[in-house]
Every structure is written in C-alpha cells, then in structure tokens.
C-alpha cells in the first residue's frame, strides 16, 4: 500500500518559506538565488524518512532526475541557450527588438507579445518552448521602452499557457485525453468554452496595462537589418507550423551562425564560444530543473503526493463537488510536482474514478485536469515556465513576474465559475 503523509510535503513548504520569506525580509526577491532554496529543500527531503538508507534515497532521487520529461526539458533549455547566444552574437536579437519597436508602439507592445505567444504555443504545444523563443524579445522590448520587464515577461507566459492546454500536440492534451479515454476534439470543445472568456479578458487587461506603460516613456527604436532577423522569423514560422521545438532551435542556431559569419560578426573559430556562452546562460535553470526533480521524487516516495490524492478524494460529495474536486486535485498535485504533464498522469486515475462515479463526461474530466494543472503551472515561482522567463532577465525574479501572469489567473477563475454556476444537463454513462 502506498505511503500517505502530509509531512512529506515539508520540503516544498521549506522552499516557499525561504524564497518568499527572504524576499520579503530583504525587500529584494532576487536576493536569494532560487537554486539555493532548492538545495535546502532537497537536503530536507534527504533528512526525512529514517527507515530508508541514504543509498536508497539517493537511488530514488537519481531516478527522478533521470526522468524522460526532465531530460527532454533540460535539452530544450540547452538548445534555447545555443540559439539565444548565436542570434545575439549575430545581431539578430537587437535587430528583432528594434524592428518590433518600429512597428509596435508602446500602446500595443504588451498585447502583441501575448497574442504572438498564443499563436506560437498553439502551434508548438509547449509553454516552455514558447517562452524560450519569445522571452528574449519581450525583455528587449522592455529594455528599449518604459514598460516593466516583469509585465512583458508576464504577457509572454500568459500567451505560452494559452496554447499549453489547448494545442492538439501539447503533451498535457495528449496525457489528459489518453488517461480519460476521450477524443481530442471532445476535450478541446469543453476546454475552449471554459477558457475563452479568460483569454479575451486577458487581452483587454494587457492592452490597458500597455497603454498606461506606453504613456510613461517614448519608444526608442534603433536600426535593424531584416537579414539578421531571418533566424528569429524562421523559428517563429516553424513554431506556427508545429515543428519539434528541439529541431527548431537547432536549425535556428545553425541559421544564426551562418548569418553571423556572412556579416563578419565573429570568425569561424569563434562559433563554439558563441554557442557556449548562450548555453551557459541557461545553466541555472537546467540545474534547478534537475534538483527540483530529485526533491519531488523523494516527496512522492515519502507519500506527499498520495496524501494530496486521498485528501481531495474524501471531500467529494456531489457532481459539481466532483468537478471541483478534480480541479483541486489537479492544482494540488501540480503545485507538488511543478510539472503539469506529470501532475496529470499522477492525478488521472483518481480523477477517472471520481468522474465514473458521478457520471462526468471524459472530455470534461480531461479538460479540468489540463486547465487546472496549467493554471498553477503558470503561477508557481518554482515552475519551469516562470523560472525560464526570469532567466532571460538580469534583475527580475520569478516572484516578480507572478502578478503579471494574468491569463493563468483568469483561466482558473473562468473555469471555476463555469463549474460552480454552469448548467450541466448532460450526464455521462
């Protein structure tokens, strides 16, 4: 019988207390590196459960770090760093930002970031991949205007999370539909109805914030060269066409190096150092992802995830309550795992049991799983999305970006309102 313990979640509470508490105490949420907090949390996880030897705990942590999803995510970070370093050295980043500033006045710049993020994430099916492509442009726009960097990054994260739970090729969509035994179109139909109001309202709010930010200063666009922009354009178009994000970033890196060599921005002997600098810029987020995976593996082995599952299961009393329970289950497991795909896989069996008992359609269940894991994945400061976004800015912490992640917040509110107050005449089974 699997373990079940509330105290197994202690490492998460320790990290949050350290990271948030230290930020409040010093008045600077960037004062403590996130990796330091995670190392402390991992240490706490190792100190728990005296019945296991250190060697057994190490084996559990190592298997968590070596998880396929974790390794693929780290590879995306590495390729994103190589692309970022190459296109930056080739002048592509500066030209892209200046071009964007020349066609996007401050009054719509933030809205533009959000809308582009929506399209890219729908096409790519990955929020982290979308953020790695869009965040450098968002940061560049912020640096050349009076718009806060955290706001621009929040718009990028919002757009990325839009497609993360709606795209047909998203790993979360695939996991949710497969575990609940429904067609993707059934899940999409339920999904879009629940989140569309949030998407539209987010656009309006970001436009209003952009208008206010735009009045604070004048746009300062420099010169740009269209040829230098082509690698970014190729990556964006490839994303919209649905190419694999790793292959896309690899191709973009090669394209950027060719452009840089043709313009004489660097010599042939310097291409590896150019790529290396970019890869090193993603060092922190890559190491954090691995440490978090180890910590969560120990939390799961100690019964933290099982405690969340059983607690939610006991609170379900009615059909609407069952849907709220599935939503709460999804959110809680995502906060504990910091990975919405993993959270769906873990929560899915219990969610299916609840759905069968209370005659909830599989498409509806899959939609709730996907939506509420995505809601919190776009808000937790220790999740890959916010950590990745903040990694592209020198003086912005994930906590500072959270208030501007408007779409995940409104997505949760919109879906919850539909669940609680919406009419459910259809009964499955």
Given the structure, what is the number of helices? 21
**Strand pairing plus helix content: what structural class?**
mainly alpha
The largest sheet is: none
Q: Rough shape?
A: globular
Low-confidence sequence ranges: none
Query: How much of the sequence is in beta strands?
Result: under 5%
Radius of gyration: 22 Å
What's the count of strands?
0
What's the end-to-end separation, in Å? Answer: 30 Å
Helix content: over 70%
Number of domains: 1
The averaged pLDDT comes out at 82
SSE topology string: HHHHHHHHHHHHHHHHHHHHH
Structural descriptors:
single chain, 429 residues, mainly alpha, 76% helix, globular
Protein model, in words:
The longest helix is centred in the middle third of the chain and has 31 residues, at 184-214. Helices cover 76% and strands 0% of the residues. It has helices spanning 10-26, 34-47, 54-65, 68-89, 92-103, 106-124, 127-144, 149-164, 171-180, 184-214, 226-240, 245-263, 271-280, 283-301, 304-314, 319-337, 340-357, 362-377, 384-391, 398-401, 406-421. The protein has one domain. The two termini are 30 Å apart.
What's the gist of this structure?
The chain is mainly alpha-helical and 429 residues long.
How are the SSEs ordered, and which strands pair?
Blueprint: H1 10-26, H2 34-47, H3 54-65, H4 68-89, H5 92-103, H6 106-124, H7 127-144, H8 149-164, H9 171-180, H10 184-214, H11 226-240, H12 245-263, H13 271-280, H14 283-301, H15 304-314, H16 319-337, H17 340-357, H18 362-377, H19 384-391, H20 398-401, H21 406-421
């Amino acid at each position: 019988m699997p373990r079940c313990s509330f105290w197994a979640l202690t490492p998460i509470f320790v990290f949050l207390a350290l990271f948030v508490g230290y930020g409040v105490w010093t008045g600077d949420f960037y004062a403590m590196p996130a990796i330091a907090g995670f190392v402390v949390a991992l240490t706490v996880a190792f100190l728990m459960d005296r019945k296991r030897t250190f060697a057994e705990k190490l084996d559990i942590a190592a298997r968590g770090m070596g998880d396929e999803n974790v390794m693929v995510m780290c590879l995306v970070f590495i390729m994103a760093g190589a692309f970022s370093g190459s296109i930056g050295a080739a002048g592509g980043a500066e030209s892209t930002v200046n071009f964007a500033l020349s066609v996007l006045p401050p009054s719509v710049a933030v809205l533009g970031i959000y809308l582009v993020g929506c399209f890219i994430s729908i096409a790519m099916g990955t929020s982290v991949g979308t953020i790695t492509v869009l965040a450098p442009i968002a940061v560049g726009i912020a640096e050349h205007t009076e718009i806060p960097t955290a706001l621009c990054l929040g718009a990028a994260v919002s757009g990325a999370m839009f497609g993360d739970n709606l795209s047909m090729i998203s790993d979360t969509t695939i996991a949710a539909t497969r575990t609940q035994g429904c067609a993707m179109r059934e899940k999409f139909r339920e999904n879009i109805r629940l989140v569309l109001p949030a998407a539209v309202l987010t656009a309006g709010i970001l436009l209003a914030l952009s208008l206010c930010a735009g009045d604070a200063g004048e746009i300062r666009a420099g010169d740009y060269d269209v040829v230098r922009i082509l690698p970014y354009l190729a990556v964006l178009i490839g994303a919209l066409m649905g190419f694999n994000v790793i292959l896309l970033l690899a191709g973009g890196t090669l394209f950027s190096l060719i452009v840089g060599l043709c313009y004489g921005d660097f010599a042939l002997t310097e291409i590896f150092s150019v790529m290396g600098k970019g890869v090193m810029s993603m060092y922190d987020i890559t190491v954090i992802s691995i440490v978090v995976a180890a910590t969560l593996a120990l939390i799961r082995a100690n019964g933290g995830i099982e405690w969340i599952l059983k607690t939610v299961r006991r609170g379900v009393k009615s059909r609407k309550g069952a849907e709220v329970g599935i939503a709460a289950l999804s959110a809680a497991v995502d906060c504990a795992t910091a990975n919405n795909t993993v959270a769906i896989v873990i929560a899915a069996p219990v969610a299916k049991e609840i759905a069968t008992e209370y005659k909830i359609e599989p498409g509806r269940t899959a939609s709730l799983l996907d939506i509420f894991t995505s809601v919190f994945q776009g808000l937790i400061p220790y999740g890959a999305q916010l950590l990745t976004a903040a990694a592209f800015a020198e003086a912005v912490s994930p906590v500072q970006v959270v208030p501007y992640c408007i779409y995940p917040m409104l997505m949760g509110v919109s879906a919850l309102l539909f669940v609680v107050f919406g009419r459910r005449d259809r009964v499955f089974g």
